[in-house]
Amino acid sequence: MNRIKKITVAMFLLITGMFLSNAAQASSIDNLIQKSDLNKTSTIAVSVKNAQSGKTVYEYNEHKLMNPASVQKIFTMKTAYNELGADYTFKTTAFIDKKGNLYIKLGADPTLTKDKLITLLKEVKQKHKKAINDIVVDGSIIDNTQWGTGWMWDDETNPLLPKYSPYSINQNKIDIVITPGKNGLSPEIKNKSSYAINIINLTKNGDSNEIVFERTPWISSDTTKITGTVKSQINIKLPVSNVQRYFMNELNSALASAGIKPTGIIKTAPVIKDTTKIAEISSIPLEDIIADTLKNSNNFYSEMIFKTAASHSTKSQGTTDKAIDLFKQYYSDIKSDNYIIADACGISRNNLITADWITNGLNKIYKENDFERFVTLLPKPMEGTLRDRLLDISLKLRAKTGTASGISSIAGYIDTKSGKKYTFAILIQNHTQKTVDIKKFEDEIIREIYKL
Fold first, then answer.
1. Residue 43's Cα: distance from chain center in Å?
2. Computed from CA positions of residues 160, 308, 305, 274, in that sequence, does the dihedral angle turn out positive or negative?
3. C-beta atoms surrounding 395 within 10 Å
4. Within 13 Å, how many C-alpha atoms sit on residue 363's CB side?
């Protein structure tokens, strides 16, 4: 056998060996799924593709429309990232008109706090020595729709799902402290905020901390019923029911802290043309906020950012519908299954995307010039929602998780043992098992993908 033939045969054997190895590994993923009790009662969808070539490496139910949960944040936040830019900052600005009215133009800053508002107002106090008449708040940058289409009504007290609005501050949550009762008395519930709410305390002392918060807005819009048992002190971030009233409450308190005593009233209206800018505060860069959004799955941040991107793109008031249009424009070149998105964070039960679309979307992001910068915003093991998962391949993985009742998902990028970069999506729906067990099953699949 001559030298050229020997090289050809060697290459053939090498390629054949690699193919057989990948096929065997793909078969092991199949075995995991087929042998799982989960596969009998729930729907599992998996898609794995080569990030560079787009070639499919493994697929299972890849064209089934399923709810992606928070995996969706990868794609809505990339839309906003492209539109606004990594260094974009949310600005809250103060203006004075000739009549001595103070205008506060809100910038839909999801990180705005009362302390930051006090900083802005102290600068106003320093620069404007005259009396201030009315306080006019301009929240026109985004609409005031505060709850997502397809969100569940009983999530209104969920700390992970506060309402969102242009009039947002402290992520629209207040601090509630519950302590065990003494001398046979019921547990004590303290509202640490000056924002008044009605609380029905039905808690009891017990052997464990098991507390349930409930609102029935069709009966009373701002009453929270708290039931369950209390063993030790419980600190809770409770979403407020009336976002705009909460903002005005915090604004009043901030004005007092800054030493400003307006002679008029507080109202809402757009900033008029004939005003002078006297103070402004800015958020941290968008890149850092999106990193927090993706790593810690911050639903509130994602909704505020998504609407702001729509406002920036259309030069008009931002809405979720306009943001979805922007999303569709950005991903219009993906030739895959149809999809439905109803919000930014992925919590809506109306969201439907396939695993195949997700890996195609990840491949699109991979091919963009800013990929290396954007991908670091996704969590890796030891960070955020991956802090306790897949620690053995922590340097090889960047991925976003998703969790809702009966739903679990994970998608992202993995550098395999063989040196390839793959995109992957795993969607599991309609399960009744413990979330921790579902996540372990996902991790098993990911470890098999790593071996490809």
1. 24
2. negative
3. 8
4. 24
How far apart (Å, rounded) are the C-alpha atoms in residues 36 and 75?
30
Which DSSP string do the residues of 249-306 spell out, in sequence order?
HHHHHHHHHHT---SS-EEE-PPPSSEEEEEEEE-S-HHHHHHHHHHTT-HHHHHHHH
The token pair at 373 is: 């910068």
Query: Is residue 327 within 8 Å of 313, Cβ to Cβ?
Result: no
Identify the pLDDT of residue 335. Answer: 87
The number of C-alpha atoms within 13 Å of 414 and in the hemisphere containing its C-beta is: 30
Q: Which residue has the tokens 């909460």?
A: 246
**pLDDT digits 0-9 by tens, 94-138:** 999 999 999 999 999 999 999 999 999 999 999 999 999 999 999
Give, in order, the Cα–Cα distances in Å from 367 to each of 139, 329, 360, 371: 37, 17, 11, 7
Please, are residues 302 and 344 in contact by the beta-carbon 8 Å criterion?
yes
Q: How far apart are CA 135 and CA 259, in angstroms?
A: 14
Q: Give the list of residues 6+ apart from residue 284 with CB closer than 8 angstroms, or none.
A: 89, 111
CB-CB neighbours of 40 under 10 Å: 7
Whole-structure pTM value? 0.92
- Rg of the chain, C-alpha, whole Å: 26
What tokens were used for 59? Answer: 């697929």
Domains of the chain in sequence order: 20-85+287-450 (3.40.710.10), 90-283 (3.50.80.20)
Tell me which DSSP letter residue 209 carries: -
- Read off the pLDDT of residues 178-210 as tens digits, 9 standing for 90 and up: 999 998 899 999 999 999 999 999 999 999 999
What is the widest separation between alpha-carbon atoms in the chain? Answer: 100
The residue type found at 248 is M
Contact 319/303 with Cβ under 8 angstroms?
no
Alpha-carbon dihedral angle through residues 58, 328, 287, 412, given to the nearest 10 degrees: -10
